[in-house]
Amino acid sequence: MDIGTIAGLVIAVVAMLVSAVMGGGDLVALIDVPSIIIVFGGTLGAIIICYPLGNVFKLHKVVLKTVLHKPLNPAELIKDIVKFAEVARREGILALENHVKDMRDPFLVRGIKMAVDGTDPELIKTILDTEVETSIERHINAKKILDTIGRMAPAFGMIGTLMGLVFMLGSMDDPSKIGPGMAVALLTTLYGALIANCCTGPLAEKLVARDGEEVLIKNLVIAGVMSIQSGDNPRIVESKLLTYLPPGVRRDFEQAAQAA
């Protein structure tokens, strides 16, 4: 589970609630059912118009990935791949079949199984590259939907505000209704802004970050599997994989390896 995403969301919500209370506001006054229906219902309808239903209904699975999924540590993955390269070098690549249960990454398992089965190297790379491209495309589509929600929600908030102003101006003969009417009209804008800036916007950016992490891991796996299948020396495998790490992380990895 990604604590950062949850902590950030909690901090944002708590900060707004605390500021409202400290300012002497009534939190109950921030709840208005018609405004909620306009913003959430209108945004949902627009999203269903923009994208296929299947993509919309699967959006929550990708979004949950930004919160619940914790990617593997690249340095730890490199250690595992080098260990498997040592086994393949010492006992033969077929021996890796007995180590599949020790592999923590399903993508690595698929690659190693194909290598053990003697699949052509070009075919293995093509299959694994295709899976990476599919994953990227899936994340891009999810980000597009989140970005669209981030645009639509404030727009429907403004629509709700305009509707509220129209209704308010229609009751100008009663000055006591102007203040409450204006407050309710502005709530729709508030809801739209909250959805865009506290939810969909940050989640879309986190999804981009998660996609980058996942692509890095999968590229590491592909390079590792191809090196193992070609019979490279474990030290060569390690050197190849370390090129995927930033210089600082690579330096820490090498220092830790020397200390061990």
What's the gist of this structure?
Helices cover 79% and strands 0% of the residues. The chain has 260 residues and is mainly alpha-helical. It has two domains: 1-30; 32-260, no CATH class.
- Please state the CA-atom Rg, rounded to the nearest Å: 26 Å
Count of discrete domains: 2
Sequence stretches where pLDDT stays below 50 over 5 or more residues: none
Instruction: Please estimate the helix content.
Output: over 70%
Shape by Cα distribution? elongated
Terminal CA distance reads 30 Å
Number of helices: 10
Beta fraction: under 5%
Mean pLDDT, nearest integer? 86
Describe, in plain words, how this protein is organized in 3D:
With 260 residues, this protein is mainly alpha-helical. It has two domains: 1-30; 32-260, no CATH class. Helix content is 79%, strand content 0%. It is built from ten helices and no strands. Helix 8 (178-229) packs antiparallel against helix 9. The longest helix is centred in the C-terminal third of the chain and has 52 residues, at 178-229. The protein is elongated.
